[in-house]
Amino acid sequence: MKFMLTLLSLVLLLVGCSKDDGLPDAIQAKIAELKKSPKQNPPAAVYSYLYHGQVVYTISSNCCDQFNYLYDKDLNIICAPSGGFTGRGDGRCPDFAANATQEHLLWRDPR
Question: What is the pTM of this model?
């Protein structure tokens, strides 16, 4: 019985510690880069959304008055829906706030 519990615990540990967490490689690499970088103020955060039928990602900027870019799975910039001097982004996706759904916090810098 003890052996079975140990085996079950090991299986759950391995399943629960999935290396990729289902995230695209480019997003994982960006998070790894942020972890190695100096702490941002406010702390860096990565969110996912469903927008126009595709999963997209936002990565917060390092400081004030900078754009918060929206990326595809390959880390290509789609637009900047927020941030910048006005706080309203670069104007290339003005419908983001109204049409983005399924917001999920994927990672926030705990430092």
Answer: 0.78
